[in-house]
């Protein structure tokens, strides 16, 4: 099956602590991605972004001097960009536009705009029924998911820490990673880091950095005439589950079950076909729950499955090869950078961290409090 | 130890009014028997917007999942327990569990209802471990 659409450009903005504005970083990401595609801004007639302002895509289109014939500003937290890939593929196949840029940027570290309480809108049920109890948002929700998971399956915090340890190993191979020069991380380091919301310490939580990225999509036919090898959009799927902390009955089973099933079915692939996986690692537990939901291992098996170096460099399941949100970059809504890394792996551009011969990549975004789940399968053009 | 609690709306008003009498209500659907929380303008079980009513919760509950918050937020004094609490009536509530040792609390622990007064006369349902 798959689609007739490909990703032809991918780039990061400056990352880390940039001192730049959101729109300045957006402009960097977009212009670098368009250049990477061998195109110009004049070729762009579709735009999808979020996290800029109330009129996010309109704002960025104005800033870039574009009059797009298709836009999407779906706000779904960190998974929005994987959703945009699906919408963009549909729009290109339907002929509403020909060249789509998906972009994001944040200056949250430079601007000190992140709060432990999150953003509470007083007209929502959560403001009446949840915020009064003082949950850290989103951390306490993921913490409860981790607590319930460890209670049910008997795993240890040390085993959970492997996600962060492996992410650091990858970051040591990625010069762009925020923790590139930080040296290795051990499970003992993760457990000894300051506790935030039990059982999660600061080292179980993603970074707070500036950063951004963009990808460019067009039809596969057109992609084959561009300078870099096309990365085909093979499949996609999504599932939206909750904003409340009490809506989902079982904290350990996420909407990635549905998003993954849809993506694999559309692509005609199974989990064993995936050569490299970029899975949103907002927290260590996010990865554990997502791997199980996507079907890479059975329920309750993920902690054993990731042990022994499987997800580290050189292991047989290369995961979050940039260093992930835990050790590379986390600008608030990280999902666009999952796509950038997946594209680079499939093009063979990743240097010391390159997964040899990678032909199928999975990018999976998770937004909010395990609220939104979107899976994209990408592949080389054969 | 609370954030400011917003004013109720037309749907949640009865629930908050009942807290003034220290009664915990759960929304229940007369058409399909579904119970739900927080209160909504329709039943998520069957979609009906005409059959929702209130039942009084017994106050018995168990811990579904819990976390001890150790980072300070404005208005809160850590460490404190945030928990998903499952009422005997079946629904989940987010709440605090006030325990002598918050770190001993675990999934499945039995709880009973308690109340934390708010300045305007309403009260927040919170929970304490049941006597064993």
Walk me through the topology.
The complex is a heterodimer of chains A (382) and B (132).
Chain A (H helix, E strand, L loop, with lengths): L4 E8 L9 H15 L9 E4 L6 H9 L5 E3 L7 H15 L4 E8 L1 H4 L13 H5 L9 H15 L3 H15 L15 H6 L2 E3 L2 E2 L9 E9 H4 L7 E10 L15 H12 L8 E4 L4 H11 L7 H5 L17 H4 L7 H13 L12 E8 L4 E9 L2
Parallel strand pairs in A: 2-3, 2-4, 9-10
Antiparallel strand pairs in A: 1-7, 1-8, 4-7, 5-6, 8-11, 10-11
Helix pairs in contact in A: 7-11, 10-11
Chain B lengths: L12 H8 L4 E5 L5 E2 L15 E5 L3 E10 L10 E8 L4 E6 L12 E8 L5 E7 L3
Antiparallel strand pairs in B: 1-2, 1-3, 4-5, 4-7, 5-6, 7-8
Quickly give the CATH architecture of chain A: 3-Layer(aba) Sandwich
CATH superfamily of chain A: Thiolase/Chalcone synthase
Query: What distance separates the N and C termini of chain A?
Result: 14 Å
Amount of beta strand of chain B: 35-45%
Summarize the main sheet of chain B: 5 strands, antiparallel
Radius of gyration of chain B: 15 Å
Largest sheet descriptor of chain A: 9 strands, mixed
Return the average pLDDT of chain B rounded to an integer: 95
> Could you give the order of the helices and strands of chain A?
EHEHEHEHHHHHEEEHEHEHHHHEE
Largest interface chains and counts: A-B, 36 and 41 residues
Q: What strand line-up does the widest sheet of chain B have?
A: 6-5-4-7-8
Relative strand content of chain A? 15-25%
InterPro entries (chain B): ChsH2_C (IPR002878), ChsH2_Znr (IPR022002), NA-bd_OB-fold (IPR012340), Thioester_dehydratase-like (IPR052513)
Protein name (chain B): Zn-ribbon domain-containing OB-fold protein
Pfam families (chain B): OB_ChsH2_C (PF01796), zf-ChsH2 (PF12172)
Domain ChsH2 C-terminal OB-fold (chain B): 54-116
């Amino acid at each position: 099956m798959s689609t007739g659409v490909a990703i032809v450009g991918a780039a990061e903005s400056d990352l880390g602590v940039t001192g730049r504005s959101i729109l300045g970083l957006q402009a960097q990401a977009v212009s670098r991605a368009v250049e990477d595609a061998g195109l110009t801004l004049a070729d762009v007639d579709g735009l999808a972004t979020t996290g800029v302002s109330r009129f996010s895509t309109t704002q960025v289109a104005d800033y870039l001097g574009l009059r797009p014939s298709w836009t999407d500003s779906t706000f779904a937290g960190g998974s929005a960009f994987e959703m945009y890939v699906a919408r963009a593929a549909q729009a290109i196949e339907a002929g509403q536009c020909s060249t789509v840029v998906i972009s994001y940027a944040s200056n949250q570290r430079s601007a000190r705009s992140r709060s432990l309480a999150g953003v509470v809108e007083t007209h929502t049920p959560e403001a009446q029924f949840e915020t009064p109890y003082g949950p850290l948002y989103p951390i306490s929700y993921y913490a409860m998911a981790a607590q319930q998971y460890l209670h049910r399956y008997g795993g240890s915090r040390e085993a959970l820490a492997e996600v962060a340890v492996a992410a650091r190993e990858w970051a040591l191979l990625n010069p762009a990673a925020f923790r590139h020069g930080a040296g290795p991380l051990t499970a003992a380091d993760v457990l000894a880091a300051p506790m935030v919301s039990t059982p999660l310490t600061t080292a179980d939580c993603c970074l707070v950095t500036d950063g951004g990225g963009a990808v460019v999509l067009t039809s596969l036919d057109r992609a084959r005439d561009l300078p870099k090898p096309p990365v085909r959009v093979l499949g996609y799927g999504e599932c939206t589950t909750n904003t409340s902390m009490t809506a989902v009955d079982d904290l350990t089973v996420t909407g990635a079950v549905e998003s993954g099933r849809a993506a694999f079915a559309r692509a005609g692939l199974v989990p064993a076909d995936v050569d490299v996986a970029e899975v949103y690692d907002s927290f260590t537990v996010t990865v554990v729950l997502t791997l199980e939901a996507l079907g890479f291992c059975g329920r309750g098996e993920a902690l054993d499955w990731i042990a022994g170096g499987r997800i580290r460099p050189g292991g047989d399941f290369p995961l979050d090869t940039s260093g992930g949100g835990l050790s590379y970059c986390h600008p608030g809504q990280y999902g666009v950078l999952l796509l950038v890394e997946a594209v680079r792996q499939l093009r063979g551009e990743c240097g010391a961290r390159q997964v040899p011969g990678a032909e199928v990549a999975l990018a999976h975004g998770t937004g909010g409090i395990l609220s939104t789940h979107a899976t994209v399968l990408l592949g080389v053009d054969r | 130890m609370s954030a400011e609690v917003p004013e109720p709306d037309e749907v949640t008003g009865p629930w908050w009014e009942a807290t003034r009498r220290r009664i915990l209500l759960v929304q229940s659907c007369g058409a399909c028997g579904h119970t739900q929380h927080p209160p909504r303008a329709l039943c998520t079980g069957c979609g009906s917007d005409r059959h929702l009513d209130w039942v009084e919760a017994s106050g018995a509950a168990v811990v579904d999942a819990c976390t001890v918050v150790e980072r300070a937020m404005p208005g809160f004094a850590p460490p404190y327990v945030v928990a998903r609490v499952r009422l005997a009536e079946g629904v989940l509530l987010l709440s605090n569990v006030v325990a002598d040792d918050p770190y001993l609390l675990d999934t499945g622990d039995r709880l009973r209802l308690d109340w934390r007064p708010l300045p305007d006369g309403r009260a927040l349902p919170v929970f304490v471990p049941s006597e064993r």
